[in-house]
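Regression test attached.
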Amino acid sequence: MSDNYCIGLDYGTNSVRAVIVNTATGEEIAESVWDYAHGEAGIIIDARDPNLARQHPQDYLDGARAVIKGALSHAGAVAGFDPRQVIGIGVDTTGSTPMPLARDGTPLAFSAELSDNPAAMAWLWKDHTSAAEAEEITASAEKSRPHFLAKCGGIYSSEWYWSKLLKCKRSAQAVFDAAHTWVEIADWIPARLCGISNPAQIKRGICAAGHKAMFHTDWGGYPDADFLAGLDPDLARLRASLPDVAYTVDQSAGLLSAEWAQQTGLPAGIPVAVGAFDAHLGGVGSGIRPGVLVKILGTSTCDMMVVPESQQLADIPGLCGIVPGSILPRHFGLEAGQSAVGDIFNWFVNYVQPGGTEKGSHQALTAAAEKLAPGQSGLLGLDWHNGNRTVLVDVRLTGAILGLTLHSRPEEIYRALVESTAFGARVIMERFEEYDQKVNEIVNCGGISVKNPMVMQIYADVMNRPLKIARSKQTPAVGAAMAGAVVAGVEAGGHDSFDSAIDAMTGTLDKQFTPINENARVYNRLYGLYRSMHDAFGVKGSQASLSGVMKELIDIRDKARGQ
Amino acid sequence: MSDNYCIGLDYGTNSVRAVIVNTATGEEIAESVWDYAHGEAGIIIDARDPNLARQHPQDYLDGARAVIKGALSHAGAVAGFDPRQVIGIGVDTTGSTPMPLARDGTPLAFSAELSDNPAAMAWLWKDHTSAAEAEEITASAEKSRPHFLAKCGGIYSSEWYWSKLLKCKRSAQAVFDAAHTWVEIADWIPARLCGISNPAQIKRGICAAGHKAMFHTDWGGYPDADFLAGLDPDLARLRASLPDVAYTVDQSAGLLSAEWAQQTGLPAGIPVAVGAFDAHLGGVGSGIRPGVLVKILGTSTCDMMVVPESQQLADIPGLCGIVPGSILPRHFGLEAGQSAVGDIFNWFVNYVQPGGTEKGSHQALTAAAEKLAPGQSGLLGLDWHNGNRTVLVDVRLTGAILGLTLHSRPEEIYRALVESTAFGARVIMERFEEYDQKVNEIVNCGGISVKNPMVMQIYADVMNRPLKIARSKQTPAVGAAMAGAVVAGVEAGGHDSFDSAIDAMTGTLDKQFTPINENARVYNRLYGLYRSMHDAFGVKGSQASLSGVMKELIDIRDKARGQ
C-alpha cells in the first residue's frame, strides 16, 4: 500500500505556507513559504492611519500557486513520492479578514478602478480602523440582542466582520455600494481553488461565521436584518447576500478545479475542505479532543477546548467564543486567550531595551532570569499591556508591576513579566474547570513553546500541570491537511473522522515540562496575590484588601533569598 | 565698618566642605572641599556585608584642617579679607553617625589595637547592619514606652543611635566594652575644635539626640535605664555616660582652641556652635521660619517646618520626628521626608538603563520626558522603591507602576517616576496642613532643585504651589555658618538671633516655578488616583475600590492626547 498525502495551506499575516503531510503518520515531508508581494511585508498600510491593515487578494492566489508548486517540488526529493498521492487539501487563514466581492464573485480589488483602493481589499484581522463601529455594535446588541454577545465574550471587536463592513459603509461608501457581498478569505480561497466564483455557491465556514460574525443556529444564522438595519440600512441589504447555513471543516468546499490542477501539478478533482482560522486548525493539528486544552503561545495566545455537542454546556463567562463545530465537527469550540504574551516580552526588549540592545535581548534576559528562583525578585506583574481578553474581556485594562525596589534588575522584571502571563494562563484554565470542563492534558504549540524552555517551565510551575508540546511546528498547516484528509475520506486513503486523523497524524514531543513541587508552592502563593490584584483592578465594583500584598511579596522574596 | 564672616563646616558622606559666609549679606566668598582619605570614597565597607558603612574619625580632623586652610587661602583673593574677620564657626554632619569614645574621650579608632576595627569607627548614617536591633527596639518601645515612638514617627530605625550601639554590643563585644560613651560626630567635631576631650564636657546637640536617640525633656532626656536594660544591661551602663541636657544650635560648644587656631590660621577663641545635622542646618540656610516648608531634594528628601514652642502642637501622625529646638531654638522642629526620590530616577538610569547608557541617561530621558503633557503617558507610579518614610512610616512597602501598554516608552516611565515622587511630596504637604501647619511658602534646595527644571515644574504643578529655590547651593554649610554668627553675637558682628541671621544671610532665587493651571488640573485628577493606590496598598486594613483606576488613567491619557 502506497502512502497518501494531504496539503495544508496556511495563510498567515505576512506569508502563506504549504505543508505536505502523510495521512497515515502525520510526517511533514515537504513545505514551502511565499511572502506576499503587496505592501509592507504583505500588508497594505497607511502612513496617516496606523490602524489600517489590508491585503491584496491577488497575493492569496499567487501564493497558493507558488507554495503548492514549491512544496511538490521539494517532495519530489522524497523516494516514491508522486503528486497523484495527494488526496485532499485544507486551508486555514487569519481572521476575521473579510473582503468585498462583486455580484459575479470577483474581488472588487481585481477591478481596474478599485485595484489601489484599500477599502476594496481584504481587511486584515489586525485592521483596527473600526473601533467606533465595534463599540456601536456592542452597545446596540447590549440593548436589543444580548444573546448575540453572550457567545462572543460580551464585547464585539473591531477586528471582526460586521465592524469592518460598517466602517467601510461609513468611510468608503462607493466601495461598499459596489460590493454584492463580503466573504472571509478563509471561505473565499477554498472556493476559488475549486473554481467557484458565484457568491451563492461559496460555502461559509462556521469557524469564521460563528466566532466573528455572530452566526448561530439558535437565532437562524447571521444576525437578523432588523438588528443590522438598526446599525445601517445597507447592512440589512448586505445580509440578504449571506446564506443560512455555515459549514464545519469536515465538509468539502468543492473539488480542485482543472485549471488549478494544471497550474500546480496536483490531481484535478481532489476535495478541498471548508476553510477555518489558523488558531482553530492549529488546535486540530495539536491533537485537540475533549479534556485537552490546546494553547497556542505566540505574541498573544489562543486557548482552546472542545466539548461534545451531546453535552449540556452553559455559557462560560469571559470566554471569547463558544461556537458549535468551530474547531471539530459535532463539538462546541471554546475559545479563550490572552491579548498579549510574547508581545509583552517584546515590549520590554524593544521599547525598554534595558542596558541596550545586547544586554536587553531575549537571550540575555532569559539567561539571567532563569537563574532566579520563584519569588526571589519580589515582583508581581499584571499582564494587561494589551487589555485582558479572557476572563475579564476588557480592553481598557493596562499592565502593572509591583514590588519594585532600588535594586530591581532587568532580568527580574523580565521574569516577572513572564510569570504574570503564566498567572493569566492559569486564570483561563481555572475558568474552564470552574464550569466543569476538566483539563486532563495541556498541549502547547506556537513559537514560544519551542523557543523558550524557561517560559514553559514557569508555566508548568504556575499552572501546576505537566505541559506537552505539539510535535509539529506547523500545527495550523497540519490541521488544515487533516481537514483535507477527512474530506478525502478513508477509502481514498484519508480518514473517516477527525478522531482517526488526530490519532494518526498528531502527537507530542517526548520532552514535557513537569511542575517542580517547590516552585509550584511558591507560585501558588504568588498566584493568590495575582488574583487579589486581578480582581481588585479588573472586576467592576470589587472591594479589595491590598494592604498586605507588598508585605507578602517581601516575605516571599526574603524566604526565596534564604533570609 | 568692615565685613565679618563665619565658617560653616559641612561633613557629608564622602567629603567635608568649608564655606566662608559674609554675616551681613550671606555672600559665600570662598569654599573648599576635601575627600575623606579612608575606605572607598570615604566609607569603610565590607565585601561580606553590604549593610556596613563606617568612617574613620581621623578624616574628620584632617578634613577640618584641610578645608579651613583651603577656604581661607581662597578668601585671600577677596579684596580686604583678613582671617581675623572670621568671628564664628558652625558644624553640620550626617547622622545619626555615632562613634565610641574611651574614658578620656579619645575615639577608640585612634588606639593602635582598634584602628582597623570597623566597629570602633564612626557608624555612618547609612550603615544598616542593625536592622534586627532596630526592630527589637521598636517592639520593646511599643510595649512599654509608646510615647518614645510617637515623637519619631512610630518606628525606630536601623540608621539611629541605639540600634547601632546595640548591634555593636551584640557583634563586637570587646569594642563595646572598651567604650565609655558614644557620641554623634555632630557633637564630637565642635568639641574637638574647642580642644574639649572629656566626654562629660562634650555638649550634645538636641538635633541628633532628639531625632535619633529618643531624647525628650518630657521624659527626662534620653530613654530611662530601665527601658535600656530591657534591651541589654550594658546599654543601661552606657546610659550613665550621657548628660541630662541637650543643646540648640544657638549655644556655643566652646571656643576655638589655640592649637586649632595655629593649625588653620583662624583667630583663637572664636565661638564654635553646637553641631546639628546637615538637613536641619540646610533648613536654616534655606531661610526656614513658621509657615515655610523647606524641602531638601536629593537622593531622598527631607521636608521641614518649624512651629513656635509657644503654640500647642499635637503629634502629627506619620512624621519622622517632632523635636523642640532641633532646627531653630524655641521652635518645634518638624521633620518629614521621602525615603527615595533621586534614588528612584537613578535606579531607572543605572539599573534599568533603558536603551543603554546613552539613551538612558538622565539628560536624554529628561529631554524626552519634558515634551510629554501631564497624563499623556497613561502611567501612574508609587514612589516606594525604598519604602515610605512619611506619612506611612513603613519600610515594607515597594514601588509600583500602573498603566503600562505595549507602547509605553522609557521617557514615559521616567516621567511617571518623577510624578510619583511629586505626589508623595504633596501627601507630606497635605499632612502638615491637615494638622493646622499652613504652608505659606515652599523653599527647595538640594541637587535636584537646581539641576532639573522639569522635575521642579512637575512638583509645582502637582503640589499646585509656587516653588522657590534657595539662593545658596550649600545651604547646610550656610546654615552652619549662621549658627556660628549667632553664637558670635551681634556685638562681634554676628547676629543676636536666627530671625536676624535668616533675614540677612538667606534668600531665594528670582526664578520660581509657578503652577500651570492646565497641568495642575490634570495632576489633581491623577493625584486622586495616586491617593487611592497609596491608601489601598499603604494603609493597613484598608478596603479599596480600584476597578476604575486603569480606566480613568486611560481616559486622562486619551484627553491629554486629544483623542
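Expected vs. actual: identical. The longest strand of chain A covers residues 15-22.
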